């Protein structure tokens, strides 16, 4: 993390077994910007995002990231058998232990933040539904709301080619642009031309190498 970049990765190499998926990839995500991560199927985009988020370790290379990173995927690791509601998943964003106890907002303020985020991602009506019953796109929006509640400094989204309708994609684009305007660094894997056109920066991967 530097004054200019929220996240900085250097020389990332990653292989599944012996199959190389990322080769010497550098990434800078500046504060206050949206970066589109583009490239053909199988280029290594999802693997890169998982490494940037810290849920996967590169065999070589380093990632400097701030404390609060939100990884927004459609299939988060919440077991379907776990009876959590949408609201509870979003409220997990208030569990930060990094803020000293006396500086943490009170219960009512936390509840208001959760309500506001649910409304922003258009899930207020589904707040008491079990999380496991949501569609992929709805789960993704719930995870985004969790990151908003947490006040994440970096948002990493893995948006598959299909799965979100046009209105939902437009809404997500707006929310991400707002998060960047508030100072966060946002990176979004996308096959969507509008997302690529509207991004401040584009990172292109092909065959596991950066080509742009
Ligand atoms: N768990 C895994 N085990 C083995 N190989 C994998 C695994 N996950 C991905 N791969 C392979 O790694 C390569 C990169 O996959 P990755 O999902 O990172 O690409 P992607 O650019 O996100 O693709 P898409 O646009 O299709 O989502 C592909 O060849 C894929 O088959």
Give a description of the structure.
With 212 residues, this protein is α/β, with parallel strands linked by helices. The protein has one domain (5-210): 3-Layer(aba) Sandwich (Rossmann fold). Helix content is 31%, strand content 26%. The chain is built from 6 helices and 9 strands. It has helices spanning 45-53, 86-91, 107-120, 136-150, 166-181, 193-198, and strands spanning 5-16, 19-30, 34-38, 60-64, 69-72, 154-158, 185-189, 201-206, 209-210. The chain has a 6-stranded mixed sheet with strand order 5-6-7-3-8-9, with helices on both faces. A 3-stranded antiparallel sheet has the order 2-1-4, covered by helices on one side. A hairpin with a 2-residue loop joins strand 1 and strand 2 (19-30). Helix 3 packs across helix 4. Bound molecules: adenosine-5'-triphosphate (ATP).
In short, what is this structure?
The chain is an alpha/beta fold and 212 residues long. 31% of the residues lie in helices and 26% in strands.
Topology overview:
Elements: E1 5-16, E2 19-30, E3 34-38, H1 45-53, E4 60-64, E5 69-72, H2 86-91, H3 107-120, H4 136-150, E6 154-158, H5 166-181, E7 185-189, H6 193-198, E8 201-206, E9 209-210
Parallel strand pairs: 3-7, 3-8, 5-6, 6-7
Antiparallel strand pairs: 1-2, 1-4, 8-9
Helix pairs in contact: 3-4
Bound molecules: adenosine-5'-triphosphate.
Adenosine-5'-triphosphate (ATP) binds next to helix 1.
